[in-house]
Amino acid sequence: MPRTRRLAPPALLALMLALGAATAHAAAAPADATARPRNVILMIPDGCGPAAITLARLVSGHPLVLDSLLVGAVETHSADSDVTDSAAGGTAYATGVKTRNRMVGVDPEGRPLGTLVEAAQVRGLETGLVTTADLTDATPAAFVAHVAQRTLQDSIVLQMVGHHVDLLLGGDRSRWQPIPAGGRRRDDRDLLAEHRARGGTVVTTPAELAAARRLPLLGLFGIGTDQIALEIDRDTLREPSLAQMTAKALELLGPSPRGFFLLVEGGRIDDAGHDDDPAGVAREVLAYDRAVALALAFARRDSRTLIVSVADHETGGLGLGRRVGRASPYVMHPESLLAARTSVWRMSGEIVDGGDPVTVAERGTGVDRLEDDERAALLTAAAAPDSARRHGLLRALSEIESRRVRVGWSTGGHTAVDVGLYAFGPGSERFRGLHENTDVARLIAGLLGLDLDAVTARLRGAVERVPPR
Ligand SMILES: [Zn+2]
Prior knowledge:
The chain is α/β, with parallel strands linked by helices.
């Protein structure tokens, strides 16, 4: 692994001030303004492959909003693997450069790369990051941070703060607050208090989000300091939906005098895919599609907004159609997932915490009575040693639903399959066909008149002046 070249927040601040000075020169409108967007909403359904889209459509019984926007597909491989992770995938979409798995906002040698958010700020656009994952998770991080390891989240959050993004909405408050305040920062900084002291608004509930009227806005959600729950488990009074967060982002960024760049991540499709959770994936994709519908309504009204939706990779190796016993493999039962009330992740947690395995599984999956072999598999998993129990329970619970709906999973990780590319608005025709993931950032930068390479050059100049940590 190359030496980490992390960018210290004070240097970033100085950098952004220096970049701000260049704004006046770079802000000339593109020659053909009618064919170019003023605003871009980049939407990333993390881990959502083509089969997840089809499954959500089958479960809901009607076409997705996304379906009408399909224009092409994207190859997702990273610099060092056919199977990308979210760090390299996010970096490709943020910077237009392929990097190695686990790296965020840096090239394969660990050198920082200019991002769409940074380049948009140079041009005076307002910026926002919205996600149902943790705000410091790899995908949003790739747009504002430069670290050689995605797990360096304490550094990521400081870089995020240093960038002065106008709107940040996502999960996991713990990275932003010190231990005495219920967080897990060891440097005693309360980044929420600091945000308020700078005149920003901090919200932590759907009601507070709905009432927020101005930027800069920082929203950190999740019950306690935990992340936002999967849609199927979400407490609607205590945690906002992706659509609610997207609506607020568009309400506040919409009037931006020079336009805006907004990232909206459906961050937890990936988590449901890692758990091989068919009902969880379907519900998560449908929630993402409701956010797409809001973005589309905004773009239709506005007429100068480009929407691009593209996943960073597929998760789970989901296959639709499966031979079970002597039943025909040419039949699926997507309606069987409508009865599920709880994610397999939450069910497995309830069993680990002492819940009766069969009762939890029957209530959560909505299955009236488990088959004998399903009970046996569940009880075997529940009796496994601590280290293997959670994993075994996830597999057993997934199998109860997956066998009924007739889907299979090739992995608990990511896969190399191409993902769908969706676009609407001025410039959307440029996205037709099959692209590399890096093309997406380059196309967006070109349409907005952003210079990613110039930001990269400035970042590297700034980094060389930063003493090694
Ligand atoms: Zn991902």
